[in-house]
Input
Amino acid sequence: MNIDGGVHVAELNVPPSLFAAGEEEQTSILGFEDMFTTDPEFEGDYNDVVVAVSQDQLSMTTIQNVVNNLNLVPDEAVVV
Output
């Protein structure tokens, strides 16, 4: 991460119920914020870019649940 460049990351707390069976323990959901904390428009929601990191491929159920829970895309959008 480039803190001097205004890029910050945080591991997001995602409810365990959003993960398909067995995926919670092996998955980290990282949220990135692209503004300086001193910027007047800094909102600190860490959803400018969201990345799921896992040893194995995640199920579409988990991906859709996380995307919908974090309100990353409109309900009618499809994530592939």
Q: What stands out?
A: Strands lie at 8-11, 27-33, 49-54.
